[in-house]
């Protein structure tokens, strides 16, 4: 036993020696660079006109290292920036629950309160003009600053003053901030049983939300589906591939190429896919995870893409937290579509290009998608009628399946949606 213990001590000592030697060699090799940083810091601390804290200099050095990569997608994040990013990814934050827009007169307008939130319950209405946030006039704030001022720690209070319609007297609301879960998915059922599904962002729970919306539309009897990814900037990669899995029966959904050049399938589809006529709307604002989804559906011929060429962001970022609440976001890999197409800087071309103009009074891209699916459903009905005439042995009065309707067994076999991580 004593002999074994001595051997362990020798091994640990040897490892420590090797690590120390490597650190020392690294230090000697980079002495000039380390001395340069030390000299710059010394000059700032002793010669700079204004005070500069050591923490400020270290943060600047860390931020500078990331900035030196000259990659717009790789950034150093201070504590607030890191928290904001996490809230963005999770689509939740402390706030009052309103969507805002800027009017032509640079007024801050409530476009809609989010149902069930403090603003909704207090009676803030679409069209209300935000005049004051606490003691600050909205006219003195940028759009982002106004949003930031209304957000805060759940349980804290913020006062919002608004003008409504032609009223001249300010309506003031004292609101208690709550965790706001931003809806990333919405749907409705159009004429001719065509479903419309809007995905605004890929948050960590968007795939589950999409599945629930699909179930609701299935119960409503949809026979075809439009997925709207326009102006969707991306988000969580796993959510995107899980949604692709709903519509693709088998095969890799996306490939990842790491820093060594090694390519591997990041996720693959199972055999339980929805079979439904599908159109995906895209434009130049469709980026990153939106392109993962639309690229997979295009490569497997599971959908027709209508709209404009997508943004062309085919790289993946990882978010790494640091000990003091800060973090860094780094480009760690790039992705390829199932056909191993690199779309970075190129984008994805739609099958049917439709370019809207400022003179359009209707959504011409959505109209094109609707008309395409309506024609496809009409053709299915005609083909089924021809088939029924040819089948002389059909039982009269036998139950028939609606053409193009998604398979009920797919929904019944998976209550919460399928997914790959």
Give the helix/strand layout:
Layout lengths: L1 H28 L1 H17 L6 H14 L7 E3 L1 H12 L1 E4 L2 E5 L5 E6 L4 H5 L6 E5 L2 E2 L5 H8 L6 E7 L7 E6 L1 E4 L3 E6 L3 E6 L6 H14 L4 E5 L8 H11 L3 E7 L5 E7 L8 E5 L6 H11 L4 E4 L7 E7 L5 E10 L15 E2 L10 H27 L17 H5 L9
Parallel strand pairs: 11-12, 12-15, 15-16, 16-19
Antiparallel strand pairs: 1-18, 2-9, 3-4, 4-5, 5-6, 5-7, 7-8, 10-11, 13-14, 13-18, 17-18
Overview of the structural elements:
With 421 residues, the chain is an alpha+beta fold. The protein is built from eleven helices and 19 strands. Strands 3, 4, 5, 6, 7 and 8 form a six-stranded antiparallel sheet that branches. Strands 10-11-12-15-16-19 form a six-stranded mixed sheet, with helices on both faces. Helix 8 runs parallel beside helix 9.
Descriptive keywords:
single chain, 24% strand, 421 residues
Please outline what is shown here.
This protein is α+β, with helices and mostly antiparallel strands. 36% of the residues lie in helices and 24% in strands.
Helix content: 25-40%
Query: Secondary-structure element order, as H and E?
Result: HHHEHEEEHEEHEEEEEHEHEEEHEEEEHH
Task: Label the structural class.
Answer: alpha+beta
Q: Give the DSSP E fraction (strand runs of 2 or more residues).
A: 15-25%
Distance between the termini: 46 Å
Shape: globular
Mean of residue pLDDT values: 84
Number of strands: 19
Please mark out the parts with pLDDT under 50 across 5 or more consecutive residues, or reply none: 4-16, 21-25, 392-405
Largest sheet: 6 strands, antiparallel
Counted by DSSP, the helix tally is: 11
Radius of gyration, CA atoms, in whole angstroms: 28 Å
């Amino acid at each position: 036993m004593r002999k074994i213990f001595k051997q362990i001590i020798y091994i640990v000592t040897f490892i420590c020696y090797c690590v120390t030697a490597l650190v020392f060699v690294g230090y000697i090799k980079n002495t000039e660079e380390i001395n340069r940083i030390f000299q710059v810091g010394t000059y700032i601390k002793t010669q700079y006109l204004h005070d500069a804290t050591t923490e400020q200099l270290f943060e600047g050095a860390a931020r500078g290292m990331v900035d030196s990569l000259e990659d717009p997608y790789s950034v150093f994040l201070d504590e607030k920036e890191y928290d904001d990013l996490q809230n963005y990814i999770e689509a939740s934050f402390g706030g009052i629950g309103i969507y805002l827009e800027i009017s032509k007169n640079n007024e801050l307008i409530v476009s809609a309160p989010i149902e069930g939130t403090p603003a909704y319950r207090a009676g803030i209405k679409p069209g209300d003009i935000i005049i004051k946030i606490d003691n600050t006039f909205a006219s003195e704030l940028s759009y982002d600053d106004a949003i930031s001022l209304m957000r805060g720690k759940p349980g804290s209070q913020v006062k919002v003053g608004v003008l409504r319609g032609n009223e001249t007297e300010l309506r003031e609301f004292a609101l208690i901030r709550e965790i706001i879960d931003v809806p990333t998915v919405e749907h409705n059922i159009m004429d001719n049983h065509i479903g419309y599904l809007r995905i605004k962002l890929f948050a960590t729970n968007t795939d589950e939300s999409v599945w629930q919306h699909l179930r609701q539309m299935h119960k409503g009897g949809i026979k075809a589906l439009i997925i709207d990814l326009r102006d969707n900037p991306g988000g969580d990669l796993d959510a995107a591939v899980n949604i692709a899995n709903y519509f693709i029966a088998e095969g890799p959904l996306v490939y990842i190429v790491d820093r060594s050049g090694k390519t591997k399938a990041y996720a693959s589809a199972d055999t339980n896919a929805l079979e439904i006529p599908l159109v995906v709307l895209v434009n130049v604002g469709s980026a990153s995870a939106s392109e993962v989804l639309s690229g997979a559906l295009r490569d497997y011929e599971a959908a027709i893409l209508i709209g404009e060429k997508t943004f062309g962001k085919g790289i993946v970022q990882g978010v790494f937290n640091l000990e003091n609440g800060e973090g860094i976001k780094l480009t760690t890999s790039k992705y390829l579509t199932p056909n191993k197409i690199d779309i970075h800087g190129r984008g994805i071309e739609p099958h049917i290009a439709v370019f809207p103009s400022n003179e359009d009074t209707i959504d011409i891209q959505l109209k094109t998608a609707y008309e395409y699916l309506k024609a496809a459903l009409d053709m299915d009905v005609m083909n089924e009628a021809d088939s029924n005439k040819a089948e002389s042995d059909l039982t009269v009065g036998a139950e028939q399946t609606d053409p193009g309707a998604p398979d009920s067994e797919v929904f019944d076999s998976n209550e919460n949606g399928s997914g790959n991580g």
